[in-house]
Design a protein that fits this description.
about 210 residues; alpha+beta; four-stranded antiparallel β-sheet; 8 helices; about 20% strand; disordered C terminus
Length: about 210
């Protein structure tokens, strides 16, 4: 059964063991959190679909480390706002990007970014998972992920990179977060990668964090 979108109340249900699909449990879970003086959060470098909880004062002392989930009211407001402005935003975006990018010098348009190992791994944690994410499972699909695919996902977020697929693969191997690679043939070509749950194409490159 698919869980509703990840909000503070859904995260609280997951942390406390309530059935998040039963909306009657949402208020119960949040009241339980209030009694414990805790809030459901995810850390800045973790996958938001795996919530935890900390004392409220701990979150307030470290708001950039312990990120809170949006409330259902905020999510509903965001959905209404996005629905009403999506067409205007798309046409505006197309106009601005097509004109702005063309006016840039070649040295800027063709520039490549350099990212650190931490930046790469922190972003990959938000878009790939060894286990099927429980928060929004319909947003993910299981794919064979090789070094080329890893770089593609990072470039959707950071733009063209100077980092090579081999270097990115080395970071991933060293982290041991997503298990070991295996060799297989794909379309007659020998490839080496991992079977992982990957955020679907239409979501890649977007900010996967949650805002309050």
């Amino acid at each position: 059964m698919t869980l509703p979108p990840m909000t503070a109340s859904v995260a609280a249900c997951i942390v406390l063991g309530y059935d998040a699909n039963d909306t009657a449990n949402h208020d119960l879970a949040m009241k339980h959190m209030q009694q414990l003086d805790m809030v459901p959060v995810h850390t800045y470098d973790s996958n938001p679909v795996h919530p935890t909880a900390v004392l409220r004062r701990v979150q307030q002392m470290n708001p950039y480390i312990y990120l809170m989930y949006p409330t259902e009211d905020i999510m509903e407001h965001s959905r209404r706002r996005d629905s009403s402005s999506s067409q205007a935003s798309e046409s505006c975006y197309e106009f601005v990007t097509s004109n702005s990018i063309e006016s840039l010098p070649d040295s800027i348009r063709n520039a490549k970014a350099k990212i650190t190992q931490n930046e790469a791994l922190n972003h990959l944690k938000t878009v790939i998972s060894l286990e099927h994410p429980i928060g929004d499972p319909d947003m993910y699909e299981k794919l064979l992920v090789d070094s080329t695919k890893l770089k593609e996902m990072l470039e959707r977020r950071f733009g063209p990179l100077t980092t090579t697929p081999r270097q990115i693969e080395g970071w991933v191997n060293k982290s041991n977060i997503w298990g070991q690679r295996y060799k297989t043939r794909k379309n007659g070509t020998l490839v080496e990668g991992r079977d992982l749950w990957v955020l679907k194409e239409k979501y890649l490159g977007k900010d996967n964090g949650n805002e309050m």
